[in-house]
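Training component of the fellowship. As part of building independent skills, the fellow (R.M.) carried out the full modelling exercise for a liganded target. The chosen ligand was 2'-monophosphoadenosine-5'-diphosphate. The inputs are recorded below so that the supervisory panel can assess the work.
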Amino acid sequence: MKKYFVIGNPIDHSLSPLLHNYWIQHNNIEAVYDKKKIEDEDLKNLILEIKEKRVSGINITVPFKKKIIPYLEKLSPEANSTQSVNTIFLDKEQVIGHNTDIFGFESGIKETKFNLLNKEILILGAGGVVSSIIFALKKLKVSKITVSNRTRDKAENLKNLFKDIDVVNWGDMPNFDMIINATSIGLNNKDEMNLDFSKLSKNKFFYDLIYNPNETKFLKKGKSLGNITENGKMMFIHQASAAFKLWHGVWPEIDEKVFRLLEQ
Ligand code: ATR
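Fellow's submitted model of the complex:
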């Protein structure tokens, strides 16, 4: 029986096992997908398990998407450009790190029918997934990307990967067509974002990477001010589907059952 994992810390909240195990059963594959809370010092051994074929694949979540890189033998072009890995597999005896977050975000956005061509984007947050978001936005040919993070240095560091992004202080509100919440504010229903959106014009696109809860206060606020809103559910599903295809060779179905599975 092939073994797969998602690793992170914390990891309890992860819905990846639910989704992957559903697809594994649906496609009659002999495999099991589990979650594992790990510490930094566990990374090396985990990669050894892939190398020795005791584990067939791993998904990586916060805070290990960058930390895992020194232990890998090769990065896909996407993982290299973003310095972020969320999917690991063995190919020709080499442990490879890949990034399916880019595909996930891009596919999710395309389904919204909101055309990002030449649009101005404001990203809130500078955590592990933001380089993937920026990479995807550039593929979608937006005209300007601005990053605002509470700890400004972390946003400035993204300029090492993407020279043409702008960085503003947390609390500053430059003009934008689309605003993306990539912070962890909202994961907890009580979380409030101390930003003032009241002076913005309407019909902007408020996008939250968080999908559980379904509608964060950030999205509620955006909606009440007359804007279009979307959560990160489709990004999550699409990044998982691309990892599934890589490991098992088939694209899993994304149907009503999948959506219901994630509604909890
Ligand atoms: P990591 O930074 O380890 O990759 P993450 O969950 O991907 O973790 O990122 C959390 C993001 O939410 C960060 O951008 C963080 O800002 P800091 O870099 O200043 O820590 C942001 N964040 C979390 N709580 C916040 C809060 N109360 N106000 C503003 N930003 C917050």
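The panel noted the following from the submitted structure. The chain is about 30% helix and 20% strand. Residues 62-63, 125-129, 149-151, 154, 183-185 surround 2'-monophosphoadenosine-5'-diphosphate (CB under 6 Å).
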